[in-house]
Design goal:
heterotrimer, A alpha+beta (621), B alpha+beta (160), C alpha+beta (340), A: 621 residues, alpha+beta, 7-stranded mixed sheet, 5-stranded mixed sheet, 16 helices, 18 strands, C: 340 residues, Aldehyde Oxidoreductase, domain 4, 4-stranded mixed sheet, 6 helices
């Protein structure tokens, strides 16, 4: 019997909980539809004369297509159209081209060669699904089987077969390198100073999203020279944009309807069925359904990719982790899809929710001859969190310290510098650890119980150290020689405090009065953190957590710190905009032209305070 | 392909349709009759989303030959509520937040109804057994088991 | 041969939304002539409750009851642009867009009411029950419905709002990995208790205790749905699931729900959850998306508990009975670790 409790007592001074609707257990808007069966998923739209699509798929991991003979299939009952690669107007795409990331590398229908088992090479549209299946079985493909590679580390060795011609070295490009680097401090120095070095490798196997509704779409010609598409996509405009690009048509020709989806978990972002169904509707002039069967969903639909992680920790005798090194491999499968982005997301996540003064990681997006990987619940993070948290258990055992106490000891706190060179804020790891320890009756020390996410940072923890960087792993280098994939020793130093200007912040509301003030949103953080703002503490010896130390949300540059560190945490570049503080939100009021006098009756023609500037303040009837 | 007329009752109403020899009941209910409540989750009889009741027994409509229901009585979620008045199972699913994406819900409800029709006060284990052929990927099953127990007039604390 | 109890811990944080930005979402809000509100989006509800949470956000921001708000989503002809429901971005990005759109619509609603009441719009407030009144004078009021009718038929104005939320895309330095990432993080810590059978290698998860920090639970029950269902998926990932059981080989991959293993209703794990709320300044009412992160701590906590039970480190997922038995065999028998 599960149970839920709210710990409203924690962080109570940062919240106002006085709401009419927010926080309330309102029943779901869609629940009546769900329990009456009236919720309309994409497949619950009936069309007269609906045609069905099936794919001829590669039985090989990697093969050249010498020829495709569909002559027998064409003559089979019910077959209305054979769709070939040449029918796809723009048969090369990469999903993230919609945000300008990566190069087009994946055809909708493969031509020339296939790079994974299950890749579509021909599509058949028929009156019934059974007829389409039967016709697919009658297609003869003359294959020239090519050598394939399935293991990520085999794939980056010299001489490995090229999986994806767009990326001939089997790795996605990150700037000048064939992997994404993260460098903060000098891990080599940390390993020299460490009392313990803890090292292990972790492997996450591919996992299927397994929504109960499989991927699919129904497309039909609309009355106004456009195409309607009912879809189970997780990302309506992603799918619409991808379809427009692949079919080389203005997006205004497409009318996509979705939004009620039978589970997704990441697997319905790939937008594979929508372009295919719309193409079918274009070629036949009839409604066409492209629905994956369960086998396709399991083996052709993109899984959460396999990830391999090696972690090496430098740990002091008392359990402080002073260095952490990652070598990570994302198995992207044959094409990029979204793995390239997940690696940058994962890089920004390292080293997990801990403050570690020296961190280095190399993460590789590797192409192999398997089903392309894609998003799944926790994408980019789940695998490395598995590795990190198993590793923390190993560290705790090695040092001989309680696993929860180890986490609290190393936990990141408000104001700590993260290895991607931005400050941590709004932390709550320590409190989660404390609450669950109490809940599970797992005894932890008084010191661990009194720690806080609001306290324990220091000027040292808030600064960027001298950082050892290297030039190892330039794009293409691995074709010529075997290179250790782990982060290489530094060949030069990026000085302490080096930081590009800028913080991640939203573009702001279109007009200042389109955002309520923080108080209306129940945010009391400003007052709360202002109260906690205390005089800067003297830098601690090594930045060890100080459970009773005053909070350092935005510590001032310490006089005692080395000059480079003094540039932190505020960027020294004059061009740098100030870090965006959470609130106070822009005032909603406009200055009144005539002072408003509440005791006087309101007169038309007087501009009232609080009047929206995009309405006339002096309306006349 | 030879198409054959069949007649059956669907939620108490007479239905007569022409079906092909190999046609499955799920597709015929959905495309031919227009009752879209049985959902296509796998077409292999492994997910339970297409569960309907045939003569009071839960049956996987995707692997039931349409011709085999000649003269039989079929119930789907469409017939679960009495007009606007919801069945106790439906109300319990609403109150208990026992659905997320909702795709497995029609099948779950039919499996549960078949259970409660023959066993109005099932034990927790009996509920679990009754829905063990129905896959839910969202909820972790617990809210569904609880809702079915509550719909049977018992508390969610009913033990094995 | 024996059953061994084990206990494992893990904790995580999780970035909310596309980490590097570049993922806008828009929302539109308009009133019907009788003072109900339609929220028009292109967000996707795939079970996480997008339609419901945006409805609550809109109702709260407008200051009207939830019954008077409906969310219509994902028709590209009427819904404004939205990147989609992934990367835990729905609540955060769309929720913020809805707040902005509803704020503009509220402004106009108060303007229209001010016109009718002949007061200043800044002096008006809503009671959340469908009325607009003068602050401190609840008697001087007008209903939202009357306001909308007046706006539509007398004043000739719309009660409508537009909202967009965008964090512009930022880049990553290739030498240091420096990047401006999202700053909104959810947190979790979790203890798993389980039993390992050293004869069969089978694992039974007995109980989960957890603490999830979600910024603010915008709907307590929707959050509960995510946390319970997500922890179930975490157990499933840890012990059962893979499409390639002999990875990196491609052989013997499951093709249906008989071969693809997941825990069923017979393996429900009692899960005691504590919810913490430290609102994030840039999140809607401080709420972070709990949907993705909830599964993450379960995987390592299960692995750590198995080690605690029998002394076998299973570093390759999923942790099947075979892997546990081979580990026990290699160790020359189960090696239970210190009880916690």
């Amino acid at each position: 019997m599960s149970s839920v409790e709210f710990r409203k007592d924690i962080f109570a001074d940062e919240r106002d909980d006085d709401f009419n609707e927010i926080g309330k257990p309102r029943i779901r808007q869609d629940i009546l539809g769900h329990v009456t069966g009236r919720s309309r998923y994409y497949d619950d739209h009936l069309f007269d004369g609906l045609l069905h699509m099936r794919c001829v798929r590669s039985p090989h991991h990697h093969a050249r297509i010498r020829s495709v003979d569909a002559s027998a299939a064409e003559r089979m009952p019910g077959v209305r159209r054979i769709v070939r690669p040449s029918d796809v107007p723009n048969n090369l795409n990469t999903l993230l081209s919609l945000i300008g990331f990566g190069r087009d590398d994946e055809p909708l229908i493969a031509s020339g060669k296939v790079a994974y088992r299950g890749e579509p090479v021909l599509v058949i549209i028929a009156e019934t699904e059974a007829q389409a299946r039967a016709a697919c079985n009658a297609v003869r493909v003359d294959w020239e089987v090519l050598p394939h590679v399935l293991d990520v580390e085999e794939a980056i060795k010299p001489g490995a077969p090229t999986v994806n011609e767009t990326y001939p070295n089997n790795t996605f490009d990150y700037g000048r390198f064939d992997h994404q680097k993260l460098r903060f401090g000098d891990v080599r120095k940390a390993f020299r100073e460490a009392a313990h070095v803890v090292e292990a490798e972790y492997q996450m196997s591919p996992i299927e999203q397994a929504p109960v509704e499989t991927c699919g779409a129904i497309a039909a010609p609309e009355t106004n020279d456009r195409y309607l598409c009912h879809t189970g996509t997780q990302a309506l405009f992603f799918s619409l944009g991808t379809t427009a690009k692949l079919l080389d048509m203005p997006s205004s020709k497409l009318h996509f309807i979705g939004g009620t989806v039978g589970g997704g978990f990441g697997g319905k972002v790939d937008s594979l069925t929508e372009p295919m169904a719309v193409l079918g509707a274009m070629l036949t002039g009839r409604p066409v359904k492209f629905q994956w069967d369960r086998e396709e969903e399991m083996q052709v639909g993109a899984p959460r990719g396999g990830e391999r992680w090696r972690i090496r920790d430098a740990v002091t005798a008392d359990g402080h982790i002073i260095g952490r090194e990652f070598t990570g491999f994302f198995d992207s499968g044959a094409y990029t899809r979204l793995s390239s982005y997940a690696i940058q997301k994962g890089t920004g996540h390292l080293p997990g929710p801990y403050w570690i003064p020296n961190v280095a990681s190399n993460i590789y997006c590797v192409f192999t001859n398997r089903t392309p990987a894609t998003a799944m619940r926790g994408f980019g993070i789940t695998g490395v969190d598995f590795a990190i948290e198993c590793h923390m258990d190993r560290v705790a055992e090695t040092v001989g310290i309680d696993p929860i106490e180890l986490r609290i000891l190393n936990s990141y706190r408000d104001g700590d510098m993260k290895p991607h060179r931005r400050l941590a804020k709004n932390c709550a790891l320590v409190e989660c650890c404390q609450v669950v320890a109490e809940k599970a009756k797992w005894p932890i020390s008084q010191e661990a119980r009194s720690a806080s996410s609001l306290a324990g940072s220091s000027p040292e923890r808030a600064s960027i150290p001298d950082t050892a960087v290297d030039e190892e792993g330039k794009i293409g280098d691995r074709r010529n020689r075997e290179i250790d994939p782990a982060p290489a020793p530094g060949t030069k130093t990026v000085p302490a405090g080096t930081r590009q200007p800028g913080e991640m912040k939203d573009a702001g509301p279109q007009r200042p009065d389109m955002m309520p003030d923080a108080a209306a949103l129940g945010l009391k953080r400003d007052q709360a953190s202002a109260q906690r703002q205390m005089p800067a503490a003297a830098p601690s010896a090594r930045g060890a957590p100080q459970p009773v130390a005053p909070a350092q949300v935005r510590p001032a540059a310490p006089a005692a710190a080395p000059p480079a560190a003094a540039a932190q945490p505020q960027p020294s570049a004059p061009a740098a905009p100030p870090a965006r503080e959470p609130g106070p939100a822009p005032s909603t009021g406009q200055p009144a032209e005539v002072p408003y006098q509440p005791d006087k009756p309101f007169q038309r023609g007087v501009r009232r305070p609080g009047v929206s500037p995009f309405l006339s303040g002096s309306r006349r009837r | 392909m030879a198409r054959k007329p069949i007649s059956f009752t669907l939620n108490g109403n007479e239905v007569s349709i022409f079906v092909g020899e190999s046609a499955n009941l799920m597709e015929e209910l959905r495309r031919n009759v227009g009752d879209l409540t049985p959902k296509h989750g796998c077409g292999q009889g492994t997910c339970g989303a297409c569960t309907v009741m045939v003569d009071g027994e839960p049956q996987l409509s995707c692997i039931t030959l349409a011709q085999s229901v000649e003269g039989r009585s079929i119930e789907t979620v469409t017939g679960l509520s009495q007009g606007p008045v919801l069945h106790a199972l439906q109300q319990a699913f609403i109150d208990g937040f026992a659905a997320q994406c909702g795709f497995c819900t029609p099948g779950m409800l039919m499996a549960a109804k078949a259970l409660l029709d023959r066993n109005p006060r099932p034990s927790r284990d009996e509920v679990i057994e009754a829905i063990s052929g129905n896959i839910c990927r969202c909820t972790g099953y617990e809210p569904i088991v609880d809702a079915i127990l509550i719909a049977s007039g018992q508390s969610r604390e009913v033990r094995r | 041969m024996a059953l061994h109890k084990g206990r494992g811990f893990a904790c995580i944080n999780y970035p909310i939304g596309m980490n590097l930005g570049g993922d806008p979402s828009q929302a539109l809000v308009h009133s019907t002539p009788d003072g109900k509100f339609m929220v028009t989006l292109s967000a996707i509800d795939l079970g996480q409750g997008m339609k419901s949470v945006t409805r609550q956000i809109a109702a709260e921001t407008l200051g009207v009851p939830i019954e008077d708000v409906y969310v219509d989503t994902a028709d590209s002809d009427t819904g404004p642009h939205d990147m989609g429901s992934f990367a835990s971005r729905g609540t955060h990005r769309v929720g913020n867009a809805v707040i902005r759109a509803a704020t503009e619509a509220r402004q106009q609603m108060l303007e229209a009411a001010a016109e009718e009441l002949e007061v200043n719009a800044g002096d008006l407030d809503t009671d959340g029950k469908g009325n607009i009144h003068v602050k401190g004078a609840p008697g001087r009021s007008i209903t939202v419905s009357e306001t909308a009718i007046a706006a539509q038929f007398n004043q000739g104005r719309t009660l409508a709002g537009r909202g967009i939320f965008l964090i512009p895309k930022s880049d990553v330095n290739d030498e240091t990995g420096e990047m401006s990432t999202v700053t909104c993080f959810a947190h979790a810590a979790l203890v798993v208790d389980l039993t390992v059978d050293d004869e069969t290698g089978e694992v039974k998860v007995d109980e989960i205790n957890s603490a999830y920090e979600v910024g603010r639970a915008l709907n307590a029950r929707l959050v509960e749905q995510q946390l319970i269902g997500g922890a179930w998926m975490g157990v499933s990932h840890a012990l059962y699931e893979t499409t390639e059981p002999y990875y990196p080989e491609r052989d013997h991959g499951p093709v249906d729900f008989l071969g693809y293993q997941m825990p069923g209703p017979g393996e429900i794990v009692p899960h005691n959850i504590a919810i913490l709320e430290r609102p994030a300044a840039d999140a809607p009412f401080g709420g972070k998306g709990p949907g993705e992160m909830c599964a993450n701590p379960v995987l390592p906590a299960v692995a750590n508990a198995i080690y605690n039970a029998v002394g076998v480190r299973c570093d390759r997922l999923p942790i099947t009975p075979e892997k546990i038995l081979r580990g026990i065999q290699a160790n020359g028998g189960a090696r239970p670790q210190a009880r916690r």
